[in-house]
Amino acid sequence: MNEPRADEVIVQEVLQGNRNEFRTLVDRYHGLVYRVAYGMCGRVETAKDAVQEVFYRAFKRLDQFDAKQSFGAWVRRITVNYMLDQFKKKRIRTESMYNEEGEMIDAPDSTFDPRNELTESEREEVILNAVQQLPDKYRAILILRHFEDLSYEEIAQSLELPLGTVTTQLHRARNMLAERLNLLQGDYAFGE
Q1: pLDDT value, residue 121
Q2: Which one is the CATH code of 1-94: 3.30.465.10, 1.10.1740.10, 1.10.730.10, 1.10.357.20?
């Protein structure tokens, strides 16, 4: 059984002219890019478009990749920056992660398993909709921390922010989310 080649090796091969090897990186990381983009916008088509644009940008800037960091962290940062840029330009808007029937829209590569989460479905709907309504920078930090399960250090690296800023913004994002959820508390039961 062959060990998978390291991302840095593949990057070097692409930079040396073997452009087809970039497909290996796309195959390896398209799920990550999609999850981050979808988590930030809640729109399938927008997330799919983001995947294409992010990998196009990564390919064009491959010579700027620093092998001291992981390729996944680098492409995640490109994804977050691209999505934030699109929000600033108002080219995309966020949508609920639920369809008209109240069912969660299934995102490819998602870890959501309705068989395990049925008792949480109403609570999740409210929380995810509230997250989608947060300002962009706070939504991005919450998505990276709680949906992508990144450490504070990884978030700082992905967003190119000081660790203290990540801590502060995550605290503010959680407070904003809690305020939004408290407003809805009369309609939904959040406690056991």
Answers
A1: 57
A2: 1.10.1740.10
Q: What is the DSSP code string of 149-164?
A: ---HHHHHHHHT--HH
pTM of the entire predicted model: 0.65
Q: Which CATH architecture best describes the domain 111-192?
A: Orthogonal Bundle (1.10)
Q: Residue 144: CB partners within 8 Å, gap ≥ 6?
A: 36, 76, 80, 150, 154, 155, 158, 159
Instruction: Find how far residue 69's CA is from the centre of its chain.
Output: 18
Do 13 and 21 contact (CB within 8 A), yes or no?
yes
Residue scoring higher pLDDT (63 or 115): 63
pLDDT in tens, 90-121: 655 555 555 556 565 554 444 444 444 334 55
Q: By C-alpha distance, which of 48, 57, 49 is closest to 75?
A: 57
Shortest CA distance to 83 belongs to which of 107, 56, 50, 108?
50
Place of tokens 């998978």: 4
Angstrom CA distances, 77 to 4, 100, 160, stand at 23, 32, 8
What is the pLDDT, as a whole number, of residue 108?
A: 47
- Contact yes or no for 34/53 (Cβ under 8 A): no
